[in-house]
Amino acid sequence: MEYNEDSTSNKKRFVLGLDVSTKTIGIALFENDGNKGKLKLLHHVTPQVKPKPESAMQTLFEKARIFEEEFLNKYLDLDIDRVIIEEPLVRSNNVNTVATLLRFNGMISRSVYDILGIVPDFISSYAARKYAFPELMGKRTKTKAGKVFTESQLSKKEPVLFGSLPYDIDKKQVIFDKVSDLEPQVTWLYKKNRTLKNENFDMSDAYACCLGYMQKEGFWI
Known about the structure:
Elements: E1 13-20, E2 25-32, E3 37-45, H1 56-70, E4 79-86, H2 95-116, E5 121-123, H3 125-132, E6 137-138, H4 151-155, E7 160-161, H5 171-182, H6 199-216
Parallel strand pairs: 1-4, 4-5
Antiparallel strand pairs: 1-2, 2-3, 6-7
């Protein structure tokens, strides 16, 4: 989805949401209409570093530089006054993966600060989805094994994200479907076999990140 540059003539304010992974950075740019947001751009940057550096850290630095060139520098003229970044998920058993995600998230945060002059705000993926789509909160009625909880057990349970859906639900697909329903004008990316490209899920996560934060903090209703 492309952004129409003519709208900048009114000097409107914009909010940027980023879903950062070492492969793809999902981007959601909203026009801030006061108590709500209007999607202006849903995009992604998938940095390709060639030739590949010998150092993994240098690869991350180069990917951050590519993100700056392909996106941040192109949108300097917009009045972006808030940037929300989804916090990296650190519940992985692979310590190296977690460390890499944290490093790259920090690099992208620094890029935002250096180029846009904005200290980013952060939100967890759970909170982003919870506040972006509160209808996804529900109580679990069964165990993973399929045993139904008693009324007494249910009365003690609190609603959780995706609680009313099966345990094995594809959570990224659920969020994608929510965003697709809200934004029917978006043209999504497909592979040759007509299945969705993974970049779509990064973009829909960026959307949820921005919407969830703004609604959680009470900026948007």
